[in-house]
Amino acid sequence: MNASDVFMFLGGICFFIYGITISSKSFETFAFGSFRKFLNKVTSKPAYGALLGAIFTAIIQSSSATTVIVISLVNSGTLNFENALGLIFGSNIGTTITAQIVAFKLTNFSLLIFVAGFLISMIHTKEFIREIGRGIMGIGFIFVGMQFMEQSVAPLKDSTFFINLFMSMSKRPILGVIVSAIFTGIQQSSAVTIGIIQALASNGLLDLNAAFALVIGANIGTTVTAMFASIGTNTQAKRAAVSHLMFNVVGAIIFLFIFTPYLSFVRLTSDNLVRQIANSHTFFNVTCTLLFLPFTAQFARFIKRIVPGEEVILEGGTKFIDTRLLNIPSFAVDALHKEVYNLFQITKKNLYSVCAMVRDNTNKFCQEVLLRENSINQINKEIQAFAPLITKNQLTDEQAKELSLLVNIASQIERIGDITVEISELQAERIKEGAVFSEPAMTDLEKMLDVLRTEYEIVETNFDSFTYDDFKKVEEIEDVIDELEIQLRDAHVERLVNGICNAEAGVIYVDMLSNFERISDHVYKISRLLKEKEKISETEEV
For residue 278, what are the domain limits? Predict the structure, then answer.
């Protein structure tokens, strides 16, 4: 194998990877929307989750990409760990589609496939169709890469070193597993590794024994991507990544025990070695998934023992708004009111979490605040999207006004959520810098927090029937907090001059005062909107 062959081999790998990347990105643009849409509906049942994971991965041609997406969803609180398992199991089935496509030996038509995809992507006006065209171009690149790899490895048939190496893998499968796992872990794509395996087999360099050992290793090596993606995530997301690794490792161990009889079965499925390799890959992952699905709950408990830690169970998604209510505007408006109140309660939890963090000088709830903020943002988006749908129906003037007020209230609540995140970041900075608030500073700050909590609770308690008297109470508290901020700032400056407080801690302290006062402003604005809403209700009664 000379330098020209080496460069052709590397070029083939590049074409193969580029083809997978193009097709993955193109198909993902329209697949991901459907994936998210049905996610929470089907994943509660592991079998349905596995089917969805298999279909989605087959479309984007990357189990690593699917698993990384799943980890991000688990980390954001959109998906819980248990429901993620089915998707992870299914992703291993979906990734086998690339090897099956390659086994059709369409390499002679690689340029034709590429040209067809190119023409579709350039000529068609609809972006959806153009993305499909780009995906087809990617498949063309995959076959071009296969051609290059097959041609470049042909001279290895005369290499004693490689013949002995592949024979060793055939006789000692564990060696092939290790080599393939390391190689796949480095380049992070099992599809590329299996493409290379098929290229070597097409030239008679590998028998089925050695090839399947490499296939098993590729399945283990591909989990490296998920493990890297889980760095810095919460406990649930780390469990999802570890479950991907353990699923493939346990599957590998099982099949190493039944290695010879399993391959005897695979040989019956086809006379073509490349097709046998594709089938061994597919049957391996399908069988592992079928073995694990009945024991999903037990497997989840096992992973929790390996990755212990607190689970943050957060509110996710809307509870009350439903498009089926749109035909009855009064019901739809009432559901929107309940959803806004639900949003207000979730935001209260974030407010209380940051108050506890500041009081106890801890960053214990930082991750919880961030996760809950994702829910707040998502629910607010759903509210903002649902409200215009109601207006398409015939509304009374009062309903239209109430709808507008509710949307505005939701926006104010969302801003409170943003500010609580800012406070949690300030608290994290306080701990990182070792900034210590003096005892008088903490006493003053507690005073403000107590008043703010009272203001928030008045609005929460009377959210459904806010009266003018409630508004006046909130207004008085808002004035108190405005005055408190000025007093506490002045007291801080005095302590700073007297050397009681240090400048580093002082900057964070003043920023916290400002943020808590901003929350009070938004609570006051909400109370003003609720007062207007109550006027509308009184008008309707009259």
Answer: 3-306
